[in-house]
Design a protein that fits this description.
This protein has helices at about 15-20, 45-50, 55-60, 60-75, 90, 115-120, 125-130, 130-140, 155-165, 175-180, 185-205, 225-230, 230-240, 260-265, 280-285, 305-320, 340-365; strands spanning about 80, 95-100, 105, 150-155, 210-215, 250-255, 270, 290-295, 325. It is an alpha/beta fold. The protein has one domain (about 15-365): TIM Barrel, CATH 3.20.20.210. The strands form two sheets. Strands 1-4-5-6-7-8-9 form a seven-stranded parallel β-sheet. Strands 2-3 form a two-stranded antiparallel ribbon. The longest helix is centred in the C-terminal third of the chain and has 28 residues, at about 340-365. It is globular and about 70 Å long.
């Protein structure tokens, strides 16, 4: 399978509705994209996976770009999120990681001592991840300027938890044991992973990504004091080192309601919200000088269309037309999600947000 990339990207996606919303500019409608939209729910993706593993797809730029674009051919999403995995840079530097269907990343030789930490070398994207940056270049050339290319990488805490635990964990006991019992080693591990994350995201931006998202899937396992001591300095370094690139930066984590008061000061331009708190209340805590992304429960897509519309309308109503809202789910699409509902939701968000803006403009014009 190959993809043809012939369209020219005249001005890039920096002026896309996604990026304008991320910069908290007024937009004509609310942009929408979904985490895990590339793959998961699409039969055409499942057909590709019958022939290729996830890592094999990522290592073939033409195929990876094709999979990334598949959902945008189905529906008018406002951003194409790179098809990849957060552990890909670790695989590229020699960590023995297998991505197991239904399980996630499995690390064969867990990192639990100084020797293991010091085996984690720096990543050189041009040499170690050339397929990733080439995929970004193909996407940037293919997409209409009104649709953004979104790159991403794993945050150091989530990467560290996989390396230490060996796979996804419920309680992260080994991870917490290291940060409590050997904080010096913990910070060395986090520093190395931070460097890997910065290099990976910077390379994506310079290859043509219009925005980037930092995924910290498991950081909600920590309380605020532990986040402030063991994670926040490294996350702040990531956003500080990427800020000169001049692109919107999203910081997303799950179960982070207790961390928002800290995350808002870490340097991201947009905070991704899960569905465990109301969007307007979260935005008040974060402050309106930042954008927000979210935050529909992914399970809402399993209900009937009228129930789905009510819940999506509630998210939009809580955003209240304030500049800086990007519609998304509170986490990724589930593989079993009905595709028709996903497509319906995109159209509903676009139409309803356009209607709300028109109604607000009419009311403002009519007021004395």
């Amino acid at each position: 399978m190959t993809a043809r990339f012939v369209a020219k990207r005249s001005s890039g996606g920096a002026e896309s509705v996604f990026c304008r919303a991320a910069r908290r500019e007024r937009v004509e409608r609310t942009p929408v994209w979904f985490m895990r939209q590339a793959g998961r729910v699409l039969p055409e993706y499942r057909a590709v996976r019958e022939r290729f593993s996830l890592v094999e797809i990522c290592r073939r730029p033409d195929l990876c770009a094709e999979v990334t674009l598949q959902p945008l051919r189905r529906m008018p999403l406002d951003a194409a999120v790179l098809f990849s995995d957060i552990v890909l840079p670790l695989i590229a530097i020699g960590v023995d990681v297998e991505i197991v269907d239904g399980v996630g990343p499995v690390v064969r030789d867990a990192v639990r001592d100084a020797a293991g930490v010091r085996r984690l070398r720096a990543v050189e994207p041009n040499e170690d991840l050339p397929y990733l940056t080439e995929t970004i270049r193909l996407l940037a050339r293919e997409l209409h300027p009104q649709r953004a290319v979104l790159g991403f990488a794993g945050a150091p805490f989530t990467l560290a938890s996989y390396l230490i635990e060996g796979r996804a964990s419920r309680h992260f006991l080994r991870t917490k044991q290291m940060l409590y019992a050997n904080p010096a080693l913990w910070h060395e591990l986090m520093s190395r992973l931070t460097s890997i994350t910065v290099a990976t995201l910077r390379a994506q931006v310079r290859a043509g990504a219009d925005a980037v998202q930092l995924f910290d899937s498991w950081v909600g396992a920590l309380g605020p004091a532990d986040y402030a001591e063991f994670v926040q300095p490294h996350v702040r370094r990531i956003f500080a080192e990427l800020a000169p690139e001049g692109v919107p930066m999203v910081h997303f984590g799950v179960h982070t309601a207790g961390l928002l008061d800290l995350m808002k000061d870490d340097g991201a331009t947009i905070i991704g919200l899960d569905w465990h708190l109301l969007l307007d209340e979260a935005w008040e805590r974060i402050g309106h000088d930042l954008g927000v992304q979210g935050n529909l429960d992914p399970a809402a897509l399993f209900g009937p269309p009228n129930a789905l519309e009510r819940r999506a309308a509630d998210v939009l109503a809580r955003a209240a037309n304030r500049p800086g809202h990007i519609f998304n789910l509170g986490h990724g699409l589930h593989p079993e999600t009905p595709l028709a509902n996903v497509m319906h939701l995109v159209d509903f968000v676009h139409n309803e947000s356009t209607r709300l803006r028109s109604a607000a403009a009419t009311a403002a014009f009519a007021s004395p």
